[in-house]
Amino acid sequence: MMRFRSLRPPSTSRSVALALLGPGVAFGLGLLIDRRSLVGATSLCLLAVVVAAAFAGRRSGFAASIVAFLGLNFFFTEPYHTLSVRRGADVIALFVFLIVSVLVGTLLARALEEREKAERRVAEAAFLDRITARLISGEGLEKAMGEFARDLVAMFELLRCEIRSADGGAPVVAVSPDAPDAARDGPRLEVPLGTGDGSLVALRVEGAPAFGAAERSFIQALAGQAGLALERGALDAEVRDARVDAEANRLRAALFSSVTHDLRTPLASIKASASGLLDPSVAYTPAQRDEVLATIVEESDRLNRLVANLMDLARMRAGALVPSREPVWIGDLLNAVLARMRRRLDSFTVRVNIRPDVPPVSADPMQLDQVLTNILENSARFSAEGGEIAITAARWHGTVQLRVADRGPGIPAEDRERVFEEFYRSDAGAGRGGSGLGLAIARAIVVAHGGRIWIEGAAGPGSVVAFELPVAAVPQSAPESDRAPERGVGP
Amino acid sequence: MTHVLVVDDEPQIRRALRTGLQARGYDVVEAAAGDEALVQLAAREPDIVILDLGLPDLDGSEVIRRLRAWSQVPVIVLSVRDRQDDKIGALDAGADDYVTKPFDMDELLARMRAMLRRAQPAEASPPVLRFGDLEIDLARKLVRRDGTRVRLTPTEYSLLELMVTNPGKLLTHRWVLQKVWGSGYGEETHYLHVYVRQLRQKLGDDTSIPRLIITEPGVGYRWTADPAP
């Protein structure tokens, strides 16, 4: 992580040390090599001034120039060890040195400062760019804000950084990983986020340098970006809510049409049939009477299935589809479902092939019952009279896969996802009396169990609804009861 | 004549049951609430009770608990509640069977007949039960199929005996586990599955179309075979 390099002047102690030490070393070396050579000492002193200016700034360079000027006068001009100068040439040399060294030191220090400023601007721009990109990237606003605060902590060497949003929620707080736990608050900077009442608070440890003007303005710019991002996040949430509302409205409309159409149609046939039977002026043959009565029973069943699905839809919407799991042997369950749907499946050939090694699945038996019922109901709806419905189950890795194949018109590949959508009705399903809920509910239940459900193309006409559920961890054997009678059993 | 007490707060359901049952020769007594049902039960001593759970005064399960304090009359719950917990709750309270609304009249009548057979006086129950080609000698604890002895483990036999002596009754997993394995059991439904599967195999009960032992998903098992005369 890049650190923010401020334009704070270098520390005074460093300035003084370099201003004294540099020329001092130069004098020592000069005296050591040739105690009478003003030229050699001058060159060494110029080097010392350059070093001081480069590493401790222009003031240090200037001070070093003065020290060097005095020292050269004291050590290297006759009369030695005095500040008076005998030769005119030496006077010229000393003053030329002073002017040149001050100029060189100042220019060098300024050039270095300019370069540093430019580098800092580039770094600032890059940082701003990066966090802006992250803030508008659409990833979780909370997360982006957290990273933003952490970046600030690292860049400005903060103890902690807090971002308090306008809505009064918990502030985003990032703390320096380097700071000792017992660190106490020192310099503090609080700037508004620019929008709303939010603010950004930056804290340094006690004893750290205060925030400079450059840092202050940069942090203000960053806080402005954070404010914009927060505002954008709030707007995004509004848009999302609006979309959810629109989706809810669409579902409500679909539900309304489903309820009016799908409840009224069977009700209409029941009422027509029953009132017809009550009519004293009509003489039905026994066969006609049976047919009318069969219609009443079938349509009642249809109403009942629709009500069951609507209730499941309501549970699903309320997030109440929490399976209460137990080991379920899918074969047993299937038998119970087939027995219950006997009349509905009467006109089809139902073949069941469940491999004996199929282990129990971990499922809610009632909900799984609903899944099987809905899938079989769907297959029956799309099958021709006398058509075959084949049910197979097999173990597949850690799951049990069950397939229900029919010989109906099949489902085009592009619609194989959509059949699981609520209120979806295929063109082929028009007039077949489905509510468009059965498979949607089956999918919701299977997914709530951590399984998956899909459509496969069958060999030949028809389609296959397949789903898989995790195997239940249950031993395949059970102990004999120690309460069982010991005597007289078997030969 | 068989007396049936119908307890339901919906007059339409009572009417449908009354006409359906009277047409088949049953004598029907009605009650619209739990307290009334308990009074009728004491006064009329019906042979069987058909009970709704959602009553205006008492919950149906509470009615069952109270009547079980002094009566062993068979009780069939007839309710719109179809959740596993509701079924198990009513059965554990002492109900013998559970039918969900909407229901088939013939299905309800079949369950009633099974209950009424069970309620016959105990001394009339023969020591040897016959179900098609299956013969169970309760006194000697012997099982024959087509005249050949069927070897059962002690636990398999206990399970079979429990079922055939409670024909038609919907037996919850917990109840069967406690009767066969002991009171410390109740959650080990997989024991039951293993033994029911073994029993079905040994008794020749086709697993795809069982006719002896019926699974009630998530609730329990029921012995459905009609005994041969």
Descriptive notes:
The complex is a heterodimer of chains A (491) and B (229). Helix content of chain A is 53%, strand content 13%. With 491 residues, chain A is α+β, with helices and mostly antiparallel strands. In chain A, the strands form three sheets. Chain A has a five-stranded mixed sheet with strand order 6-8-9-11-10. In chain A, strands 2-1-4-3 form a four-stranded antiparallel sheet. In chain A, strand 1 (160-164) and strand 2 form a beta hairpin. Helix content of chain B is 40%, strand content 21%. Chain B has a five-stranded parallel sheet with strand order 2-1-3-4-5, sandwiched between helices. Chain B has a four-stranded antiparallel sheet with strand order 6-7-8-9, with no helix packed on it. In chain B, strand 1, helix 1 (11-23) and strand 2 form a beta-alpha-beta unit. At the A-B interface, helix 6, strand 5, helix 7 and helix 8 of A face helix 6, helix 8 and strand 11 of B.
Summarize this structure briefly.
The complex is a heterodimer of chains A (491) and B (229). Chain A has 491 residues and is an alpha+beta fold.
